[in-house]
Every structure is written in structure tokens, then in C-alpha cells.
Amino acid sequence: DIFSMRLSRDKEEGADVRGTQLAAQSGYASNGLLNFLRTLETARSQPGTERNFGQLLSTHPPFQERIATLEPIVQKAASAGRTLEARFRGALQ
Questions:
Q1: Which end of the chain is less crowded, N or C, counting CB atoms within 10 A of the terminal residue's CB?
Q2: Is residue 70 packed enough to be buried (19+ CB in 10 Å), middle (13-18) or exposed (0-12)?
Q3: CB of 13 within 8 A of CB of 69?
Q4: pTM of the predicted model, to two decimals?
């Protein structure tokens, strides 16, 4: 389990990086996952929520580690890219 968990965590980091890069290359805002991870980290730090994140944290790299990995990639992509928020909201209706 220890070996497979480490491989899983490495794959998760690779997926984070590649997804962020693809978003930027495709013209989308590259900070979506980074912002989501920051939101999860904030939620995890609230009293009484630690148990809710137990399984996720046991199989994924820690949020802070993932955030630190993505920050330079997002900074390099700068503020280019679109969020297409209006299209997203329209799809929800």
C-alpha cells in the first residue's frame, strides 16, 4: 500500500500540473485548480472538518504541497486566459 500510495500521489501531482498547463495553453484561466485547492485547504482548517477530509488526504498529496507546485505554473501563465463564467452559469440553468 505504501508503494502504490506514493505512485498515486505522484500521478496526482502530474495530473495537477498537466491540467493546469493544458488550461493555460487552451486559452482558459490557469488558476482554477489552484483556487479550488486553496478553498479546500481553507475548509479543511475549519474546526470540525478534519474528519471530512480524512480519505482524500490519505490518498492525495497535502493541499499545501499541491498549491506550492501549481503556484509557479500559474504565475508563469500570468493573467491570460478566460474563465467563461457566463457560459458555465448558463449550463447550470
A1: C
A2: buried
A3: yes
A4: 0.75
pLDDT above 80 for 16? yes
Phi, psi of 50 (to 5 degrees): -55, -40
Question: Of 5, 22, 1, 20, which is closest to residue 62 (Cα–Cα)?
Answer: 5
Q: 3-state DSSP call for residue 48?
A: coil
Q: Where are the alpha helices (DSSP H) in 1-93?
A: 2-25, 32-44, 54-59, 63-77, 85-92
- Residue 16, amino acid: D
H or E segment to which residue 47 belongs: none
User: Could you tell me the pLDDT band of residue 35, with boundaries at 50, 70 and 90?
Assistant: very high
Q: Name the residue among 31, 39, 35, 28 with its Cα closest to residue 83.
A: 28
Question: d(Cα 3, Cα 7) in Å, to the nearest integer?
Answer: 6
